[in-house]
Amino acid sequence: MILVTGGAGFIGSNFVLDWFAQSDETVINLDKLTYAGNLENLATLKNDPRHIFVRGDIGDAQLVGKLLAEHRPRAAVNFAAESHVDRSIHGPGDFIQTNIVGTFHLLEAVRAYWYGLADAEKSGFRFLHVSTDEVYGSLAKDEPAFSETRRYEPNSPYSASKAASDHLVRAYHHTYGLPVLTTNCSNNYGPYHFPEKLIPLMIVNALAGKSLPVYGDGQQIRDWLYVKDHCAAIRCVLTKGKPGEVYNIGGWNEKANLDIVHTVCALLDELCSRADGKSYREQIVFVTDRPGHDRRYAIDARKIERELGWKPLETFETGIRKTVKWYLENQDWVSSVQSGNYRQWVEKNYAGRA
């Protein structure tokens, strides 16, 4: 069996669902269930004995140690993180505690467990840490995409906290020999994405007749990766990756934010047109940019393709169509996650930006 942390969040829950589509191996799923963790993402596994859910914090070393000793997993995959740049600007403390201190406590518990394994189990064990391309900073328009050797230059409290966690993971390999793997992914999109992020926010607001807020001039460029492709890449790294190595995972889809919004609007015009016959593009409004907004991210994913044989299956066109259709077909899920706290957060973040 394997231990998955943060397995009720967006990427984590997709990984768990995808894992069981490929394997019968048991998953111990540890998740704190903060605002973005949602057991409804895993409703199809409610009575599945392969899925053992435990509500808890990666920073609780005693709990993590108990789970490791009891279940004796062959690997740990760490998705647990605070991950929204805007939230990190408003309240960086949670990001420091979860992404840095929490990762430290998790590593300590895993290290103690790993030391106690028999030689064969010890050599086969892996700790896979899921990180982000944002640790590399911002690219100029004509700069080469981020490679694994790119210098870290984080520009937000979120990316700085993830950079620190990456350094801790690296240090535990070089100091203690812990067999770690680190992946740095580009912007994910797909089912179960919490609707404060760009793509789900545009879909939800468009259908509700609300404005579609675009930061600044909307020309911030990101590389977009369909979440199920990301899950396949993580399975590949877990199986084939070399301990101590970093693998960048990208979709080879550089798009400006405004182009993303236009694409979403066009798909909604096609699949769920407005009652007045007008385009959803009329709901776009440009708002004040967030502080320190990185201009461009791009992932060079040649290493993982060359060494491990992975590359994305979805184009942006196929992935975004699947995503929009999923949100249209799962309105109950969308309604359930839009709690009072969520509405208050959106109002707080976008207040005064007009």
List the defining traits of the structure above.
alpha/beta; seven-stranded parallel beta sheet; 13 helices; 354 residues; globular; three-stranded mixed beta sheet; Rossmann fold
Structure characterization notes:
This protein is α/β, with parallel strands linked by helices and 354 residues long. The chain has a domain at 2-193 and 226-252 and 295-314: NAD(P)-binding Rossmann-like Domain (Rossmann fold). The chain contains 13 helices and twelve strands. It has helices spanning 10-22, 61-71, 85-90, 93-115, 119-124, 157-176, 198-207, 227-240, 257-271, 302-308, 316-329, 331-337, 340-350, and strands spanning 2-5, 27-31, 51-55, 75-78, 126-132, 180-185, 187-189, 212-215, 221-226, 246-249, 254-256, 284-287. Strands 3-2-1-4-5-6-10 form a seven-stranded parallel sheet, with helices on both faces. Strands 7-9-11 form a three-stranded mixed sheet. The protein has a two-stranded parallel ribbon with strand order 8-12. α2 packs parallel to α4 (93-115). The longest helix has 23 residues, at 93-115.
Task: Summarize the topology.
Blueprint: E1 2-5, H1 10-22, E2 27-31, E3 51-55, H2 61-71, E4 75-78, H3 85-90, H4 93-115, H5 119-124, E5 126-132, H6 157-176, E6 180-185, E7 187-189, H7 198-207, E8 212-215, E9 221-226, H8 227-240, E10 246-249, E11 254-256, H9 257-271, E12 284-287, H10 302-308, H11 316-329, H12 331-337, H13 340-350
Parallel strand pairs: 1-2, 1-4, 2-3, 4-5, 5-6, 6-10, 7-9, 8-12
Antiparallel strand pairs: 9-11
Helix pairs in contact: 1-8, 2-4, 4-6, 7-9, 9-11
